[in-house]
Amino acid sequence: MTHSPSDVLHIIGGGMAGSEAAWQAAQAGIPVVIHEMRPQVETFAHRTGNLAEMVCSNSFRSDDSEQNAVGLLHWEMRAAGGLIMQTADRHRLPAGGALAVDRDPFSEEVTATLRAHPLVTVEEGEISELPAEGHWIIATGPLTSGALAEAIRAETGAESLAFFDAIAPIVYADSIDMDTAWMQSRYDKGETEEEQKAYLNCPMTKDQYEAFIDALLAADKTEFHEGETAGYFDGCLPIEVMAERGRETLRHGPMKPVGLTNAHKPDEKAWAVVQLRRDNKLGTLYNIVGFQTKMKYGAQTEVFRMIPGLENASFARLGGIHRNTFLNSPTLLDGEMRLRSRPNIRFAGQITGVEGYVESAAMGLLAGRLAVAEITGKTLPPVPAETAMGALVTHITGGAEAKTFQPMNVNFGLFPPVEGLKGGRRGRKDRYKAYTDRAKSLWTDWLQSTVTGAEASPAE
Ligand SMILES: Cc1cc2nc3c(=O)[nH]c(=O)nc-3n(C[C@H](O)[C@H](O)[C@H](O)COP(=O)(O)OP(=O)(O)OC[C@H]3O[C@@H](n4cnc5c(N)ncnc54)[C@H](O)[C@@H]3O)c2cc1C
Fold first, then answer.
1. Which string of DSSP letters, residue by residue, matches 297-325?
2. Could you tell me the CA-to-CA distances from 164 to 130, 380, 385, 390 in Å, in that order?
3. pLDDT digits 0-9 by tens, 120-163
4. Which of 367, 9, 145 is nearest to 153 (CA)?
5. Residue 220 CB: number of other CB atoms within 10 A?
6. What integer pLDDT is reported at residue 231 of this predicted model?
7. Atom of ligand 1 at shortest distance to CA of 364?
8. What band does 450 get if pLDDT is binned at 50, 70 and 90?
9. DSSP conformation class of 393
């Protein structure tokens, strides 16, 4: 079969996302050029010139596709013939229920497989401009080169491309004790009742506040990676750094108790109040406002469960601050991951505001398939939001709150609830099984429908 130049898919960045996107497209018969800047241009985290290099831990996290959302994503990617998953499976290391990977043979094999594919070309060199025409996927990751990042910023506006994340912990709404917490916006601000009750408030007495500050100061913290310039700007200091500046700082900052009345004990004035804000349209996730942190994960759960109302909190994700180039995808990308202002460009991977090797590869898989459909004139049905893949892409392209958008791991809080099941901790096992059964069935149907995808109408 001969291909015209306009059929070629160009992918910038041969990391987790770019490699998977290239594989999906090439396997579907589309010629692909991967533009990868390494080894000519290096990043502070990568060590080799290999594609799909794992820059830090060697874990793809839980492989449990029945009870864990990332395990479900593994399952969906395997079902779609994903290169990253099949190569990871071949280089699996013993790690209990997790999928740990022998990193060097893994990335060497991904590189060799792609280079050997008759439809894949790897061109070494940095791309520093946004392409004006042709089919492109930008998958340049958290360490996108400076020149390309500037070009993206010039297109999207400075507010829409971040260079550091500042992730506050996110709590599952159904794990918050509403006999202690209450819903109210400070000074009841807002036109509608929904706005006046937009925040979830957790009150603290003086003793509880003092113990909380002690715990924050004593907690184990992580350091920035070597070469990763510390990215604190005053608007988003880690809470423990705020606490180090003075024991009262938090009480005059994110934990100030003013403008709030405890709905359960109206006569008791709280010494401090922790506020949580809705994090997704479904209302299943809440983030702890202003609580970005460099505390270690174990310390975070211990310290945050000291907050009244969060004693039994389950965390959809814990906080962090990292060097991370990412877009405000909910405003910039359409549902097919295209840049609204330049639809010939899709984005994939961590730069879209997902977090992690697996999530990045998953968004590459989807972007690759969507690009193939476009090039071959097919229309794919939307990916069901009840699948892990669909929940993630729906979140980043619209389900998340755009104003406070921060990178997200896949988690069950992103899934539309299954009706009629018991909430809370007790019902969790059955609930997760229902989510994953539903997802597997819908993902299988979706994959099947993409084989027979309808031809695009001439108007499209
Ligand atoms: C220091 C650090 C540690 C991390 N640790 C973990 C971890 O332990 N576990 C985890 O799950 N996730 C981790 N992540 C997050 C993230 O999941 C990984 O970075 C993941 O590799 C992202 O996949 P990606 O394909 O989006 O980007 P990458 O895998 O980084 O791939 C992007 C590729 O684009 C290339 N590139 C960049 N700019 C250009 C350009 N202008 N032209 C051509 N090529 C370009 C890069 O060289 C790179 O190969 C970490 C991130 C960082 C920065």
1. HHHHHHHHTTSTT-TT--EEE--EEEEEE
2. 22, 34, 28, 26
3. 999 999 999 999 999 999 999 999 999 999 999 999 998 899 99
4. 145
5. 12
6. 57
7. 25
8. confident
9. H
* Alpha-carbon gap, residue 270 to 229, rounded angstroms: 38
Give the separation between CA 417 and CA 40, rounded to whole angstroms.
Answer: 47
- Average pLDDT (366-388) is 96
With 70 as the cut, is the pLDDT of residue 234 above it?
no
Q: Ligand 1, residues 48, 55, 163, 323: which to mutate, most atoms within 8 A of Cβ?
A: 55
What is the per-residue pLDDT for 458? 41
Separation of alpha carbons 230 and 263, rounded Å: 41
Pocket test for ligand 1, best of 19, 24, 37 (most atoms within 8 A of CB): 37
- What number of other Cβ atoms are within 10 A of residue 207's Cβ? 9
Helices 357-375, 16-27: inter-axial angle, 10-degree rounding: 30
From the number of C-beta atoms within 10 Å of its C-beta (0-12, 13-18, 19+), residue 117 rates as middle
DSSP lists the bridge partners of residue 120 as 32
Q: How far is residue 453's CA from residue 365's CA, in Å, rounded to a whole number?
A: 17
pLDDT at residue 401 is higher than 80: yes
**Would the CB of 42 count as within 6 Å of ligand 1?**
no
pLDDT at position 322 over 90: no
Residue 279's pLDDT is 85
Burial class (CB in 10 A: 0-12, 13-18, 19+), 233: exposed
Neighbours of 155 (CB within 10 A): 15
Whether the CB of 319 sits within 6 Å of ligand 1: no
Whole-number Å distance between alpha carbons of 263 and 71: 40
Length of the chain in residues, anyone? 460
Strands 9-12 and 135-138: parallel
Q: Of the residues 10, 11, 16, which should be mutated to test ligand 1's pocket, given the most ligand atoms within 8 Å of the CB?
A: 16
Segment 188-204 shows an average pLDDT of 91
Angstrom CA distances, 76 to 19, 339, 410, stand at 17, 25, 13
For residue 457, pLDDT over 70 is answered with: no
Instruction: Dump pLDDT digits (tens) for 109-132.
Output: 999 999 999 999 999 999 999 999
